[in-house]
Structure to design on (130 residues):
């Protein structure tokens, strides 16, 4: 099976496992990192189709990781979706203004999660067509 490759950057082991299991069950391939530094390394080496980025990470946070992904010619076009516990509208607006392609609010909706990810992948692929 060669489903789309998704990089999950999430420091909470239970959330990471949940997201990985949902996506794996839906036929996606996944890469996992529990901090931004490892996530950036995996992104540069594997060029995933989509990155799910926890905003609150120990050390380098998700916002800074997004900036670094955008600074690199190799990774700047990879769609990055924020995983966030921030649910207020101004927080969501801030994430989009910073350059995240979208956001998913935690706790995630298990029945809808894979479909939502699929929509982000479809939108990202469409955005990259010549
Ligand atoms: Mn976190």
């Amino acid at each position: 099976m060669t489903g789309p490759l998704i990089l999950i950057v999430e420091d909470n082991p239970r959330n990471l496992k949940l997201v990985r299991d949902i996506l794996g069950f839906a036929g996606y391939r996944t890469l996992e990192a529990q901090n931004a530094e490892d996530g950036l390394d995996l992104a540069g080496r594997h060029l995933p189709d989509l990155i799910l980025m926890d905003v609150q990470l120990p050390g380098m946070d998700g916002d800074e990781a997004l900036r670094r992904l955008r600074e690199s010619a190799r990774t700047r076009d990879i769609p990055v979706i924020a995983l966030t516990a921030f649910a207020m509208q101004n927080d969501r607006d801030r994430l989009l203004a910073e350059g995240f392609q979208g956001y998913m609010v935690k706790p995630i909706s298990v029945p809808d999660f894979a479909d939502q990810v699929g929509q982000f992948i479809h939108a990202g692929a469409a955005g990259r067509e010549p």
About this structure: Residues 5-126 form a domain with the Rossmann fold fold (CATH 3.40.50.2300). The beta strands are 5-9, 29-33, 50-54, 80-84, 102-105. The radius of gyration is 13 Å.
